[in-house]
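Figure 2 data, in text form.
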Amino acid sequence: MPKNKRESLIYTVMMCFLMVLWMSIYNVALHTGGLSFDVFQSAWLGFPLAYIIAMFLDLFIVSGPAKKVAFRFLVKPTSSNFKKGLAVSFCMVVPMVIFMSLYGGLEVVLKSGNWQALPMIWLTNIPKNFVMALPFQIIIAGPVIRTSFRKLFPEGKVLA
């Protein structure tokens, strides 16, 4: 887990990269009905804007309240790092899925021009994205990013 604001920013950049890339591939595959080279290409082309939006949401809207909820209702500062990680992950994934599902719905209706479909696309994307994002975050992205973060930035190497 990051120990100061600089570490937190670096960690967020890494985590957001992996989550947005994975969820972009997943959503394009979901909306096109399969996995192909075109899915990877489309996801990669849409990635930069999605990444910028996700970083903005994470840094300025979601992170603070999510951590407050996690530490007020789910864990204490003295809880194990594992419990803290799970609690913060859950509290981050829920609002990020809601916001980024709206973003994905906007991408779909921009291509189709069917703006009346936006509420239904958004509402149906939320559970589909949640069932992918939360397990991916907890089982794969969290451990991979935490491990690689600490290997790249040993504790005490990134100054506050």
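Caption note: The radius of gyration is 17 Å.
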